[in-house]
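Support request from a user on the community tier.

User writes: "When I paste my structure tokens into the form, the page sometimes reloads and wipes my input. The last time it worked, I copied everything first. Here is what I submitted, just in case something in the input itself triggers the reload:"
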């Protein structure tokens, strides 16, 4: 059984790296919810995890368990380390695909906003001309 600290508890590899490289660069400590322990079953192994949102941790564990079982069923391998690595690669692929899609959508939104600003500027200019003509006429 392992005890693993989840990112929700405020510990991240970046924070550890920052504190080692430049202690002054650490952000101010902010009050957080108290981490809670939760036991999860992933691929027939029990893990004791800590985090501020047990339901979220359980959801992630179910997702990882499902991915590992799908990889195992598809590949027929029983070596849990191999299954875990293949599942991690599948999850990493899904993440990369979603990031690409997000970046594409974010670019489209940015382009649309720019176009709308340009059109709004043109319309504002036309309205100003009409209003100026009414004042004169």
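"...and here is what came back when it finally went through:"
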């Amino acid at each position: 059984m392992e005890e693993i600290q989840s990112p929700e508890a405020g510990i991240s590899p970046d924070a550890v790296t920052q504190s080692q490289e430049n202690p002054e660069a650490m952000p101010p400590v902010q009050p957080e919810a108290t981490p809670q322990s939760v036991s999860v079953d992933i691929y027939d192994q029990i893990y004791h995890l800590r985090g501020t949102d047990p339901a979220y941790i359980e959801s992630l564990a179910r997702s990882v368990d499902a991915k590992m079982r799908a990889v195992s069923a598809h590949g027929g391998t029983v070596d849990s380390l191999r299954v875990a690595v293949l599942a991690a690669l599948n999850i990493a692929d899904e993440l990369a695909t979603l990031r690409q899609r997000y970046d594409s959508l974010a670019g489209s939104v940015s382009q649309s906003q720019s176009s709308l600003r340009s059109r709004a500027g043109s319309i504002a200019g036309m309205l100003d001309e009409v209003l100026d003509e009414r004042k004169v006429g």
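Agent notes: The reload is a front-end session timeout and is unrelated to the input. The first strand starts at residue 2 and ends at 5. DSSP finds three helices and three strands in the chain. Escalated to web team.
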